[in-house]
Amino acid sequence: MPTISSAGIGSGLDVAGIIDGLMAVERRPLQLLQVKREQFTAQISAYGELISSVSAFQASVDKLSTLSALNIFKGTSSNPDVVKVTATDNPDLGSFGIEVSRLAEKHQMASKEIIDTVTFGGEETTDALHIQVGSDPANKLTIDLSAAKTLAEIRTAINEDVNNPGVTATIINGENNKQKLILKSDNTGADNALTLSQSGKVKLSDFDFQTLNDIGGDTSQLDAEFTVDGYTLTSSSNTVSGVINGVTFELLAEDVGNQHTLSIARDTAEVENLVQSFASAYNDFRAAINAQRSGSLSRDNILLSIENQVRSILNRASSSGPLSTLSEVGLNIQKDGSMSVDTETLTAALDSDIDGVARLFADESDGYASRLSTLADGWIGTGGLLSSRTDGLNQRINDLTDRQISIERNLEIVETRYRAQFAALDTLVSQFQSTSNFLTSQLSQLPDLTINKSG
Predict the structure, then answer these.
(1) How far apart are CA 258 and CA 264, in angstroms?
(2) What is the pTM of this model?
């Protein structure tokens, strides 16, 4: 009997089709797993969007969650080309007159013109040029000239010294191979003035350094000089802090004889922006929740739970101070659930009691922003409600993956068994058909034994 090499050939059965049909039934659990995977993935995506919305809302809330959050101040100058002003923490409020008589300068010195091949030192081991920055002897830079150096080599030695206390050297090239060595302090003011000295046989007169600043030899003239409300002051820097509490101003130009006004006030506009951002973030958060109600979380009671928790906080009055409700600072919940800002009410509250407004939002135990931020942590923080849900779904997807691998492995075994069984069946049917054909052939060759009864 010949071996049947392809299922169905011997029997004529559609073995491949039969096996495909059986395997389609066997794969049904795998398809159901895929459906569940897609559902879980969609839920994870929805939770991710919800977490993002909560995070954005919390970020806005956190900007109001400290008692200093509303202590925002602004400084203005009547002439910002002469002096700029910045208000920092708890500044003195009011207007101040300032006159800028002199700007702070960086001390600069230049050597005389010297041929670029001329060298200095090289006569004794103690030959050196010393550059001190300020009055502290520790801030002294020593240029070793025991081996003679040109001006260019001295420049390089100054700039590349790892212990350089704050001086920069440059070379200015002139005509006929002549050049000058320029020394410049890295910082302004008399505290950073340069002092030169020498040792060995090096002579300062060989360099003939001259100060480039127009200070008449008085290094105190390197300091800025200005007058604030009639009080004359000096500063080693053009950026001045501490003269007015909580205020920093930058001197930009001399303007002798002219007084300019610096004004320091609360930046109520920026505070209003923070409160408006809070309301906008709340409305965006609500919109995100509503959008999820028609999506993958439509049957999840977590949306209602979150919404109820937020509503509970907004509806519970604060006992933190003289102000107890958000409506007292112009924040109102509309009929559609959105939050609006009444700027007139907010401005009036800020003008009358900004500390009370701050406590209303930021009181550690009972402020609205503090409570909302804590609530948000319970949703998206480590081990939070939404985070745990997402982690749980990811674990379920991992479990489905393990089940899928197991099912696919079993499907391979089942398909192999089906193919072996149908191959055997195909062979058996083929054998039966051969036997049948043989018998039919043999019977057809027998003599006709039919009896003629009529005869």
Answers:
(1) 20
(2) 0.65
